[in-house]
Each structure stands twice: as structure tokens, then as C-alpha cells.
Amino acid sequence: MKSQLLLGAAMVAAMIAAPIDLIAQERAMQTTTLRAAPLPVEGRLPSFAGATTWLNSPPLTPEALRGKVVLVDFWTYTCINWQRTQPYVRAWAEKYKDQGLVVIGVHTPEFDFEMNVDNIRPALKMFRIEYPVAVDSGYGIWNAFNNQYWPAVYIADAEGRIRFHQFGEGQYERTEAVIRQLLQEAGYSGKGNDAVRVEARGSEVEADWDNLRSQENYLGRDRTEGFASPRGALVSKSRSYEVPKSLRLNHWALGGDWTVSAGAVVSDKSNGRIAYRFHARDLHLVMGPAARGSSVRFRVLVDGRPPGPAHGADVDEQGYGTVSEQRLYQLIRQQRPIEDRLFEIEFLDAGAEAFVFTFG
């Protein structure tokens, strides 16, 4: 999601002609107006009783949080959209933790393997999450909020009333302004008007929206689009597949022996391939070893060649990497110009399970 500010010609001309100090005053007035804008009451902060366990904290309740401003962040660790918002949530938690803000991450899984707490714990370290996390594997908190999105942010005031929400990426300045406003309403300082400076790295870096022509695509039978292997997919049985000589943009294919299920594909023998024609700066694949505790070697190519400087964080310049846990792997990060590319991943060992491609 991107916000755009459209200015009329007269306003543009006036701003160009205005002295720099007047422009600064105008921006300050806009910031004050944004911070002081009335906020509706959207309901009460629901209970967190649906949590199956808590990480980084003992269990928390709305009653115990009274007097604090509470930011609730719904996430699941393989979600690329959440990963790109995390630098901001992390920075807000750090900046305002001594000013009356409590950040609570609610981890509600999309995939079955994300229900496993042993898979969630490494994500806390990977994304530098030190604030409390409620593990919501049964969707109890999700349903209490009537939530439908990853990521989703809800902010409650010191009286336990939800005053703001943000679904999806973007609106970071607006969200932080709301945090400061509610802190000030509660008698805290709000700690200045300067927005946080985020430290994004790897998959956390904002998408290259201007060059993004490929959308998220699941690989299992139920939700996939653009599957191009001849004869289609045979569900729940192993079969040999072929990659056609050419693929249209946003179409993909399997090569070698695979089993296609409702939600994933599993390589049954070594040298199984997935090919995908995409148009984006970044390409990610949520995948892992089908057997817990094992590992699978792989190699990626772009237009038939090693990725070189276009390699992602989880592969080297020759395209080699290893799948050892179930998570999102960043495989490609290109430099401009961005064009249609043919991506291929070959699993050198059997037993790789792939769930969804995402792009940025």
C-alpha cells in the first residue's frame, strides 16, 4: 500500500516561492494537526485469554494493561508483508517502552508448521523481537478481535479503548502520530515529534513497488495460479513433471518427481525443479524440509545463469543454499533495471516442501 499526496498547480507554485522557514512552519502545522486529529472509539481491547502460550513475557490481560497505551500487532513469521512492517513496530517498541507504550505481538499462524512454538522462537531472534508475544495457534485472539489480516495493528488508549487500526503495509507516520497522541492523552510525554528511523535489512526492506508485477502465488492445488506443466497436477500422488520450453509472465512449472497436495508441493527425488517467470526486484519462497530435522541442498538460476550480485540473503553468488527449517527464504534481490526473468530452483536432494512464492 502506498499513500500519494496530490497537489494542485497553484499550491505547488506557492510552495516553490515560499521561503524555507515558511515551508518548515507549514509542515510543523500539518504534523500537529495529524497528531491532534480526533480518534474514534472502535471498541474495547479484547481478552488475550485465547493465547496458547506467551513468549518474552508472562500472560498479559487488558485489565493489567490499564493506564498504558497498547499496540497489538498480528503477525505470522513467514508473511513478507508483515516482515516489511516489523522494523517500524520494533522501533516503536524500543522508543516508547519507557513512555507508556506496550507492544504485544500476536502470532496467528497461516501454515500448520507455524503453530509449532519451536518454529516461532527462532523467528523472535531473526527479527529481533523483544516485546511480549502471545502465541495464538488456535485463533482465539484473532477471533476475539474479529481480525482478517496479516499484518494488522490495533492501538488502544490508556482506558482500554481501541482508537486506531492499520491493515497491511504503510501509513507508518500516521500510526506513530497516533501513538504519540494517545501517550500524551494519557499524561506521558510522547517523546518528541520526530519519526523513528528504521533499520531494515534482508526481507524487511520495503518492496520496489514501481517494478512489482508479480503477486503472491501459492503452490498447492487449492490456491495456485498459472501452473503450466503439461497434463496439469496430479494431487496426492507422486508423478514426473516437465517444465515447458517457455513460460509466460507469472506462470510456473515443476520438473522431476513431485507430490502435489492441497497446500504445498514436495520433491520426491533429487534434482526436482521449480521454474517461475516473474517481474520484481525480490523473489522469496516459503519452504522447508518435509522431514523435520533434515536439510535439503538447492541451487537457483536466473535466466539460466547463477544469480551473481542478484542473489538473495539465503543463497551465495553461485546460487547455492540449504533448506534446513520451515520459513521464508530470500532467493533473489536484483538491481535495476527490473525485467521479466526466468527463475529456477533445483533441489539437489529429495524432500523439499515448498508453499508459496512472494515478491517485493
Overview of the molecule:
The protein has 360 residues and is α+β, with helices and mostly antiparallel strands. It folds into 2 domains: 43-204, 3-Layer(aba) Sandwich (Glutaredoxin); 209-359, Galactose-binding domain-like (Jelly Rolls). It is 20% helix and 28% strand. The protein has helices spanning 9-17, 20-36, 80-96, 117-126, 140-145, 172-185; strands at residues 43-44, 53-55, 69-75, 101-107, 133-135, 152-156, 161-167, 217-218, 238-241, 252-260, 265-267, 272-278, 282-289, 296-302, 320-323, 327-333, 341-347, 352-359. α2 crosses α6. The protein is elongated and about 65 Å long. The two termini are 12 Å apart. Residues 1-35 have low confidence and may be disordered.
Could you list some keywords that capture this structure?
7-stranded mixed beta sheet, alpha+beta, single chain, Jelly Rolls, Glutaredoxin, 20% helix, 360 residues, disordered N terminus, 2 domains, 11-stranded antiparallel beta sheet, 18 strands
Write the layout of secondary structure elements.
Blueprint: H1 9-17, H2 20-36, E1 43-44, E2 53-55, E3 69-75, H3 80-96, E4 101-107, H4 117-126, E5 133-135, H5 140-145, E6 152-156, E7 161-167, H6 172-185, E8 217-218, E9 238-241, E10 252-260, E11 265-267, E12 272-278, E13 282-289, E14 296-302, E15 320-323, E16 327-333, E17 341-347, E18 352-359
Parallel strand pairs: 3-4, 4-5
Antiparallel strand pairs: 1-7, 2-5, 3-6, 6-7, 8-18, 9-10, 10-11, 10-12, 11-18, 12-17, 13-16, 13-18, 14-15, 14-17
Helix pairs in contact: 2-6
